[in-house]
Here is the input.
Amino acid sequence: MSDVLSTQILLGIRKIVFDKFNDITIRFTNDEIFEVLKIQNSAISLTIDDMKPFFDKLHKDGFLRPIAQNFTTQWFKLFGEVEKTNCDSCNNEIHIGKLEERICPSCKISI
Ligand SMILES: [Zn+2]
Here is the structure.
């Protein structure tokens, strides 16, 4: 998978979490995110198994954390509330957790 596509998927997951699950008290699953992602990116052929590296990366970045797993279903919670902002460098709308490093997930520049 290309870097551009990977970044696009990561940005997509961030936006879905912001839109639907932006509450540090709730839990959500990889399946719930995946369903929305598939609808929004019907051209991308992904399976739920392809999603794991993306969730691992978002965990490493301090965006979300896994709290439970049952077969292929993973439950997550947020580290912190997610904020929507605009990156002055790449001009993308981005979604960053309050406890994350202030780096644009699209162009990797400090914001
Ligand atoms: Zn940027």
